[in-house]
Amino acid sequence: MTKSDRLLLEARRPRKAAGTGSSNGKPTRAEAEAAVRTLLRWAGDNPDREGLAGTPDRVARAYEEFFSGYEVDPPAFLRRTFSEVDGYDEMIVLRDIRFESHCEHHLAPIIGRAHIGYLPNRRVVGISKLARVLDAYAHRLQIQEKLTAQVANTIHEVLQPRGVGVIIDAAHQCMTTRGVHKPGMSMVTSHMLGSFRTDSSTRREFLAIVANPATAQLPNL
User: Fold this and answer.
1) What is the pLDDT of residues 119-129, one digit of tens each?
2) With 0-12 CB in 10 A as exposed, 13-18 as middle and 19+ as buried, what is 69?
3) Dihedral sign computed on CA atoms, order 103, 109, 110, 116
4) Using CA atoms, how far apart are residues 125 and 113, in angstroms rounded to an integer?
5) Which residues are catalytic?
6) Per residue in 13-48, pLDDT tens?
7) Using alpha carbons only, what angle is made at residue 63 by residues 62 and 69, rounded to the nearest 5 degrees?
8) What is the distance, to the nearest Å, from the Cα of residue 42 to the centroid of all Cα atoms in its chain?
């Protein structure tokens, strides 16, 4: 097993999430499915009819996927770095990373794109690991402000770069499909650390790279 494989396994080891109580306090699969049946009855339908008979199992399996981030340790993805970069010390930006999350207030989907940039300090990380960090936090119950800060803070604490910038642009179905019903809206949040916060020229460069329409639509190679 390679070092990269070991780090990936470590990242995927179950972690106790804050506020979840004891490690054996998680409801069983049967209890989760029973809760779905209760909600189906509360909605006014019959969970025993043909079309809904398998729904509790399907919902439980979907939740395992939607909220798989609770079983992952995001910082572990960033622990393998590379220092052989021939002195490269300019900005690195991973742009237009699609993600899906769920609002912790209504359990409604949050779907959007993230832009992550950092100024390396003698070492870099594989770019897929930045996307993995985003997904690990996104696959938890979230608000966008917290998600943005968590991604930036984790990169800053583990890699210790000269600066980090994270921008998230997302649509919230708790606003588009219920409540005020405002389709077409999106929410933008940002979190800047280090030189991205203190140096206006660094911040402008990051924002310009993110917004540059000349490279906004690259073909999938």
Assistant:
1) 999 999 999 99
2) buried
3) positive
4) 20
5) 103-106, 144, 172, 174
6) 555 444 443 356 889 999 999 999 999 999 999 999
7) 120
8) 31
